[in-house]
Design goal:
This protein has 3 helices and 50 strands. It is mainly β and 440 residues long. The chain has a 14-stranded parallel beta sheet with strand order 1-2-5-8-13-16-20-25-30-34-38-42-46-49, covered by helices on one side. The radius of gyration is 25 Å and the shape is elongated. 56% of the residues are buried.
Length: 440
């Protein structure tokens, strides 16, 4: 009797071609990169590597590397591999805090993805510290350090989750992380704290569009840069359109000479989308009297971000825009946002200048202060903001000021003292805030 064999052959070929993912272990305290045996005195006992890089070198696509708590004094490169490198429990903050990759003294980025890594390359559950950045030829013959904690370059878009980037003093840009040349990582539930740089203390993006979700940028700072402006204490974007949601920018600072701008975020020719995010206690402090804008929380230069359901409170700028400063044809769309208790010389809540035309809808401005004018919004040099269905109340010394060819159109809004400029259907009536002293 004839018996077909094709089915058996196909099944065998399929089974023989199926790769089985391996799990490799690392214990930086007692492992050994060379051994392959068992050491009952090291956890886990089945021969962990001593370094993460040795495990990456040995791994194949699809493998997982599990790192025991402790400090690994090294820098690592994923080498283009689609692998997961994680702590023993990325969801346990105690494990994340004690599973450390420390690049101190090695003069490099702590983590690199520079070989076209994709979303299947995963870094999960580490504290990343001590990185000073990767030297990049940013201009011909001009090498600058990028990405102290992590450097993603040339179409590298890994997944980063549950990490802490802290204490990375980069020489130029991107203390916590730098994303360069079409590198679009997904960064989730991570913290960028106490990183320093000349630009982008927490994160620096150029020609890249990362997705940043449920992250905190706190206490990052920029220092003096030899007479060059400093921008973006928390994040700086250049020709980049990141998506940012459910994040917090808290207490980031910029000190610059002659200029300082964007305590939390600086956007240059960039159009980020920012949703459900808070900006609190960010500052800019210029060490000169040049009068360049500050943007205590955010500066936009030739940029038009979309800001939705965001809160700006207790931010300050030494010059312009306690919360937001818009310059050079910046036309952000701002909806359902709250501006309270921000401080600047001009534009306590928002400052618009040089043909900047933001659209502001369903927002409230209260308790903001300007030293000179525009406690709520200050507009200069042919800027034409449109304000619709908003409340501007309790700002000092006044609510909206137009100077030097600026014209604000206000419709269907409540403005303390009334509005007598362009627009219609506005009222001057106490909005009856529940608790204005607490920003409610």
């Amino acid at each position: 009797m004839f018996k077909p064999r094709c089915t058996v052959a196909v099944v065998c070929a399929t089974l023989s071609g199926t790769a089985v993912a391996d799990t490799l272990y690392v214990n930086c305290s007692c492992g050994d990169d060379a051994w392959s045996g068992v050491d009952p005195n090291c956890v886990p006992a089945d021969g962990p590597k001593k370094t993460i890089q040795a495990a990456i070198d040995a791994a194949a696509n699809g493998d997982e590397i599990v790192v025991a708590p402790g400090t690994c004094n090294e820098t690592i490169d994923f080498l283009g591999k689609a692998i997961t490198v994680r702590s023993t429990d990325p969801n346990d903050p105690g494990v994340v805090a004690t599973t450390i990759i420390d690049g101190t003294g090695l003069n490099d980025s702590v983590v690199k993805c520079i070989s076209g890594e994709g979303a299947a390359t995963v870094l999960d559950g580490f504290t990343i510290t001590g990185g000073t950045g990767t030297l990049v030829e940013f201009l011909p013959g001009n090498f600058q350090a990028f990405g102290g904690g992590m450097f993603n370059e040339s179409n590298s878009s890994p997944t980063v989750a549950n990490c802490i980037f802290s204490g990375n003093p980069v020489g130029f840009r991107g203390g916590g992380m730098a994303n360069f040349n079409n590198s679009n990582p997904t960064v989730t539930n991570s913290t960028f704290s106490q990183n320093t740089a000349f630009d982008g203390g927490g994160m620096y993006n150029v020609n890249s569009n990362p997705t940043v979700t449920e992250c905190t940028f706190v206490g990052n700072s920029l220092g003096l840069n030899g007479g060059v402006s400093n921008n973006g204490g928390g994040m700086r974007n250049e020709f980049s359109n990141p998506f940012i949601t459910d994040c917090a920018f808290i207490g980031n600072t910029v000190t610059g000479f002659p200029f300082a701008a964007g305590g939390a975020m600086a956007n240059f020719s960039s159009n980020p989308m920012v949703m459900d995010t808070t900006f609190t206690g960010n500052t800019t402090t210029s060490s000169s009297t040049a009068g360049e804008p500050g943007g205590g929380a955010m500066i936009n230069f030739n940029s038009s971000p979309t800001l939705t359901n965001c809160t700006f409170s207790e931010n300050s700028a030494v010059t312009d825009g306690g919360a937001i400063a818009n310059f050079a044809s910046s036309n952000p769309t701002v909806a359902n946002c709250t501006f309270s208790d921000n401080l600047a010389d001009y534009g306590g809540g928002m400052y618009n200048s040089v043909s900047s035309d933001p659209t502001v809808t369903n927002c409230s401005f209260s308790g903001n202060t300007a030293t000179f004018n525009g406690g709520g919004i200050s507009n200069y040099f042919a800027s034409h903001p449109t304000v619709t269905n908003c409340i501007l109340w309790g700002d000092s010394p006044n609510e909206i000021v137009d100077v030097a060819g600026a014209v604000t159109t206000v419709n269907y809004s409540c403005v303390q003292g009334g509005w007598f400029g362009a627009g219609a259907n506005n009222i001057d009536a106490d909005p009856m805030f529940v608790d204005p002293g607490s920003g409610d």
